[in-house]
Amino acid sequence: MSMSDDDIFEKVQAALVDALGVDEDEATRDATLVGDLGAESIDFLDIVFKLEKSFDIQIPREELSPEDILTNSQYVQDGVVTPDGMTELKTRMPWADLSKFEKNPRVQDFGNLLTVGDLCNYVGSKVNA
């Protein structure tokens, strides 16, 4: 059963409002999970749990957070993701818009990359697979 983008957004937004205690009007498609909505690593466990339950899907941690790339010296040099690392991130995260990050790919900024829209795209790729 395929879900529309709007249906997915509504459920993702509800999960974020519940998990982060933000208002619906803050959880827009363009809002970043960390910078705009204040999500911390502990919150992501709650968000993932709520999304898994809400959509009846499994979300492997490494799909949303490819830390093995960001901590690998093959892909990161001097705190910056290398071109090979960017290629690997794009392969692993086709649902995320990495264009802004690509301009200045500092590892420390990666956490502030994901938007509500990216999360919706990810969930959509699982639900409508």
TrEMBL record:
<comment type="function">
    <text>Carrier of the growing fatty acid chain in fatty acid biosynthesis.</text>
</comment>
<keyword id="KW-0276">Fatty acid metabolism</keyword>
<keyword id="KW-0963">Cytoplasm</keyword>
<dbReference type="InterPro" id="IPR036736">
    <property type="entry name" value="ACP-like_sf"/>
</dbReference>
<protein>
    <recommendedName>
        <fullName>Acyl carrier protein</fullName>
    </recommendedName>
</protein>
<keyword id="KW-0596">Phosphopantetheine</keyword>
<dbReference type="InterPro" id="IPR006162">
    <property type="entry name" value="Ppantetheine_attach_site"/>
</dbReference>
<dbReference type="InterPro" id="IPR003231">
    <property type="entry name" value="ACP"/>
</dbReference>
<comment type="pathway">
    <text>Lipid metabolism; fatty acid biosynthesis.</text>
</comment>
<feature type="domain" description="Carrier">
    <location>
        <begin position="6"/>
        <end position="83"/>
    </location>
</feature>
<keyword id="KW-0444">Lipid biosynthesis</keyword>
<dbReference type="GO" id="GO:0009245">
    <property type="term" value="P:lipid A biosynthetic process"/>
</dbReference>
<dbReference type="GO" id="GO:0005829">
    <property type="term" value="C:cytosol"/>
</dbReference>
<dbReference type="GO" id="GO:0000035">
    <property type="term" value="F:acyl binding"/>
</dbReference>
<feature type="modified residue" description="O-(pantetheine 4'-phosphoryl)serine">
    <location>
        <position position="41"/>
    </location>
</feature>
<dbReference type="InterPro" id="IPR009081">
    <property type="entry name" value="PP-bd_ACP"/>
</dbReference>
<keyword id="KW-0275">Fatty acid biosynthesis</keyword>
<dbReference type="GO" id="GO:0016020">
    <property type="term" value="C:membrane"/>
</dbReference>
<keyword id="KW-0443">Lipid metabolism</keyword>
<dbReference type="Pfam" id="PF00550">
    <property type="entry name" value="PP-binding"/>
</dbReference>
<comment type="similarity">
    <text>Belongs to the acyl carrier protein (ACP) family.</text>
</comment>
<dbReference type="GO" id="GO:0000036">
    <property type="term" value="F:acyl carrier activity"/>
</dbReference>
<keyword id="KW-0597">Phosphoprotein</keyword>
